[in-house]
Amino acid sequence: MAPGAWVNYSIEARTLRQARANRRNARMRAARLLGTHTAEEWAEILDRHNHACAICGIPASELIGGRLTKDHITAISLGGSDAATNLRPLCRECNTAAYQASQR
Ligand SMILES: [Zn+2]
Fold first, then answer.
1. What is the 35 CA–ligand 1 centroid distance (Å)?
2. Does this model's pTM top 0.85?
3. What is the 46 CA–ligand 1 centroid distance (Å)?
């Protein structure tokens, strides 16, 4: 490897990371234009699901960290909004599985 190659590599990696973050932020901005939700609305959604994962039903109290993640039913990357009607609580495992399914 030529001297300085590592430096160039790490700058590229940082630029790529930044570009991905920018795209994610731009998508979130677009999603919020379609709809937003308040902390109270999210609390209501959690209550409606009895503070359990909407897919596997594991209660939040049994999760590491004790928290369910916010899942966008229609993925943000597919034009879903950030409105309360597009949210459901999922455990991390179900959220990851749902995300992977949406990418197929
Ligand atoms: Zn789950």
1. 25
2. no
3. 13
